[in-house]
């Protein structure tokens, strides 16, 4: 059974009369590494936000493990505990340390302060950032910021990680390191990955490549 499914998804923005997602149906299996590639403005972010329950469709629906988002008693709860998000511009809190940023999503759950600390250290190790635990995001390079943001996205052990141009602000060396981390998260932790890109290395690494144009899926290639 699919872990994530889109059925006849439509998103229309009334102002400007834009159809960013134009009748998209899509089925994502557990453990897949899917990349969505398309030009700027084609609607990729809108599609990802719908898949992640961050935005509501004009029509159609998204299902997580067979249950429509509209049927979940708390979509907030689903988002916090089963889905992880990585953005192009990190969205870390500048007044918190790296170690504290990683713990922010953990406040959704019942974990003790000691458990949160221990889990955050493990995640810092996973992204090779222990040496920056007490630093503010402002003191980190952009590559390091994204590694911390990835650690935070894994705070509640999500089944699916949704990433919107995660290497968009990084040079190729830092970009490759972030993609190495995604490979590790995919291979060693079995997380389903959905990663948006406008091309390049992300598209090369994914096992399944969806080509997107003007709100429509125009290619769906597995390799
Ligand atoms: P991409 O991620 O491929 O660059 P987006 O999903 O960001 O594409 O945008 C798709 C289209 O929808 C664009 O024409 C954009 O201007 C428009 N759009 C995105 N968000 C909004 C919004 N909140 N209100 C109106 N139009 C929007
Ligand atoms: P592991 O060996 O822990 O399974 P990798 O060696 O594949 O993981 O590293 C995952 C990511 O972390 C890659 O982007 C890699 O470049 C980066 N990395 C590895 N070691 C370090 C380090 N000591 N400091 C900073 N980044 C590192």
Task: Please tell me about this protein's structure.
32% of the residues lie in helices and 28% in strands. It is α/β, with parallel strands linked by helices and 223 residues long. The strands form two sheets. The protein has a six-stranded mixed β-sheet. Helix 6 links the parallel strand 7 and strand 8 (192-197). The longest helix is centred in the last third of the chain and has 18 residues, at 172-189. It is globular. It starts with a strand and ends with a strand. Residues 13, 15-16, 18, 20, 38, 40-46 line the site of one adenosine-5'-diphosphate (ADP). Residues 4-223 form the ABC transporter domain. This is Lipoprotein-releasing system ATP-binding protein LolD. InterPro entries: AAA+_ATPase (IPR003593), ABC_transporter-like_ATP-bd (IPR003439), ABC_transporter-like_CS (IPR017871), ABC_transpr_LolD-like (IPR015854), MacB-like_ATP-bd (IPR017911), P-loop_NTPase (IPR027417).
What does the overall shape look like? globular
Strand order of the largest sheet: 6-7-8-3-9-10
Count helical runs.
7
- Outline the biggest β-sheet: 6 strands, mixed
Measured distance between first and last alpha carbons: 20 Å
Q: Which ions and ligands are bound to the chains? A: adenosine-5'-diphosphate
- DSSP helix fraction: 25-40%
What does the average pLDDT come to?
95
Q: Any low-confidence stretches, pLDDT <50, length ≥5?
A: none
Structural class: alpha/beta
The topology string of helices and strands comes to: EEEHEEHEHHHEHEHEE
Number of strands: 10
Keywords: ATP-binding, Hydrolase, Lipoprotein, Nucleotide-binding, Transport
Protein name: Lipoprotein-releasing system ATP-binding protein LolD
Family: Belongs to the ABC transporter superfamily. Macrolide exporter (TC 3.A.1.122) family.
EC number: 3.6.3.-
């Amino acid at each position: 059974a699919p872990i994530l499914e889109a059925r006849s998804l439509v998103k229309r923005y009334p102002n400007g009369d834009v159809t960013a997602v134009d009748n998209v149906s899509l089925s994502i299996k557990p453990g897949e590494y899917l990349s969505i590639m398309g030009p700027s403005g084609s609607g990729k972010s809108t599609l990802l936000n719908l898949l992640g329950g961050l935005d509501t469709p004009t029509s159609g629906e998204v299902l997580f493990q067979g249950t429509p988002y509209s049927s979940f008693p708390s979509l907030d709860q689903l988002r916090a505990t089963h889905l992880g998000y990585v953005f192009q511009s990190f969205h870390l809190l500048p007044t918190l340390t790296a170690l504290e940023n990683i713990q922010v999503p953990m406040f959704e759950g019942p974990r003790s302060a000691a458990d949160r600390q221990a889990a955050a250290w493990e995640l810092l190790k996973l992204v090779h950032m222990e040496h920056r635990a007490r630093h503010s995001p402002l003191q980190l390079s952009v590559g390091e910021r994204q590694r911390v943001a990835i650690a935070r996205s894994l705070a509640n052990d999500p089944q699916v990680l949704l990433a919107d141009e995660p290497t968009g602000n990084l040079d190729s060396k830092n970009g490759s390191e972030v993609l190495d981390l995604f490979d590790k998260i995919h291979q060693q932790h079995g997380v389903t990955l959905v990663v948006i890109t406008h091309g390049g290395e992300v598209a090369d690494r994914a096992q399944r490549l969806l080509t997107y144009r003007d709100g429509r899926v125009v290619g769906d290639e597995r390799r």
